[in-house]
Amino acid sequence: MNDFTCYHISNRPEMFPVLKECVNPFELNYFDGSNVESFSKLVNTCVAQCPTEKVILMGDKLRPQPQHVEQVS
Fold first, then answer.
1. Using CA atoms, how far apart are residues 26 and 16, in angstroms rounded to an integer?
2. Fewer CB in a 10 Å sphere around the end CB: N or C, the chain?
């Protein structure tokens, strides 16, 4: 089990499968920002609800590879 959690934070769920495939075999969770009034609020809410101390946040434009996740974890 990892000591970190990866999130795709967005209001565009259609982008999630693309990003999830990029970071495979790492688990990626989708954090829905549809009803959040600002990006800052979205980030803060996601971090506050995360079950681990370390959080890796990813946006729609990223296309990371597994080695990138390893580097920042």
1. 14
2. N
